[in-house]
Amino acid sequence: MYSSSQVEFERLFRDPKIGRSFLVGVDKSESGVERVSVHASHISMTRKQSRYLSRQLRKKYHVNSHRIRRYSVRTLERARSLEAFLAPYRHDHILYDPTGVFDRASRLLRFAGEIRALLGGAVDKLLWQSEKGMLVIVLNRGNAGEVGHIGNASPAAIESAVRALLKGICDHDSTDFIRAVRVGYADPNIVATPIDQLSLRPRAGVLESLKSRTGTSALAAFIGVGVATTAQAQETTPGRAVSGVNGEWGLMGGSLNSETTFMTEGALTFPVTDQFGARIDATAGARDGSFLGGAAAHFFWRDPEKGLFGVAGGFANTESSGSTTGSSDVGALVGEGELYLENLTVSGLAGYQFSDGAGDDGFLGRLDFEWYANDDLLFSVGAETNPVHDFLGRAGVEYRPGFEALPGLSFFADGVFGENDFYRAYGGIRLYFGGSTTLKQRHRRDTFRSHLLSTRLTDSIPSVAGYGD
Asked: Nearest Cα to 257, choosing from 363, 398, 388, 411?
């Protein structure tokens, strides 16, 4: 090994100047040369930090043969099983494993092999649920009689044999993270990750694809990569309302009450203090050839782990389409807020709407539920009441594919329906500019989903809603 001690290496890899690595391994070539491999995420270690680390390894620790690999979140979540996930991180010797979970994950994979050897063809899938520490064994009904060395093929007998196997071949650390064993003939109703490649099946439809992606995210968290990926951003901007100056731009098209509509929207969000931030957004476009647009300003307090509360004001304007001339305006002054609950965001506003039409002023209220199927896929549903509509229902979806060349690109669709046969349906693309990577991080640490974009405020204009034409 190198002249530096293990303690000295660990001190180097804990240095905040180099960011954060989630694993460091050593491999020896056939010629006897040892090579150090450092693994980190794009978020937890910048290029500048990796260059600094490289200089330290060469000059201070005399490690001439080394490589530093930085991974995108998309790459880290690409594997569909624990076995595939661990493949790039196998080394002759582990030099630095800050959470100790790579060793535990390797033992979990080895234990899965022992289970298959014990139970033979009776095993269909071996799954891991990281949050509960649960090992799930799905049995194959077609091979129920093939139970290896066990005479009794009942799930209870198999569970007892697996627990005995766990106790016999694994030390006490394994039982610390394998807290439960479940045996049955059906897949669990919880998100779980295949442990080995034999547990993979072709994904049957969109729902299975989403569960697979979510399971891989959970796997990353178990291995420690998910923690390493997000911890750096959280440490860099702990509890700040806005991680840094950021922006977004969107382009969309669709139909607004049977009239072709094209819109572009932009926003700038920036920190005011550590706890407070501000956002300015604007929208412009055309509805059946006539202008449609507006702007809004927001001032808010936010804790990225808890929620957001603020005040906002905005307006929207549309020119009359068809044979009539003139324009219509609507404005709003509101209080708005968001509550963050793991993968669910509850958001809404309440305030006063005013317009240039008689009898069109009054209470404005909205409530949305936004669920992240994974960190890059958002589904939303909600409802609204305003002086023009007693009820508006809405639904939407946004997805960030995580392209390496355009990490901030997302695709979205949004629809609204209400009385008097009112409807709006838009779809388009959005580009985010800022420090966060995933869609969920951007919505909770950079910007947020504005309720006062003129794409929403125009729903409250009487001429748009189908009244007063």
From this structure: 388
